[in-house]
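Review this chain:
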Amino acid sequence: MAIDRRLPTHQKDRQLVMELLDCAQYPTVPQLLRADNAHDANRWFENKAEVFKNVDLKTSKDLIERYRCIPKHCYANCFHSDITGNFFYYEGYVLSKENPYIAIAHSWLVAKDNGDVIDVTLPCVDHIGETYIGIGIPRHEVNRLGFKLEVTGDFLFYMYAKENIKQHTLVGGSKR
């Protein structure tokens, strides 16, 4: 991903998100959001996504050790490592230093004071993300969905669906 360094920060972030949508994703944004319309899903993700580059490796490793986080369980690791909401919860994609051309679905935490990524999964196997691109989900929603559905993640779909339903529904009934 080649970023134009002359752009203001918010435009660089937009450029990174748009490049993410053009690169290989596993799963793709429409698949991640379980969307019928790929264009709408990509546009929604593009407009809401934030970009993170700085990782607080010390805090990440401390939480990994304290909560016995395990590889390939990013949603469970994030859910259990911060059930009280000391950090912001994000879902989206990570581009790793080892393979910057494939975006992998991932969840992570973000420090409220400085915006650093707290990744309680990738450092379990001595990897670290290069770029994190995702959407914040309020902790009360994460907890509500987690306890209601008895799962620990992949909640981005619910946020997309919730907003999509609001957009296509009038007060008192649907547009149909």
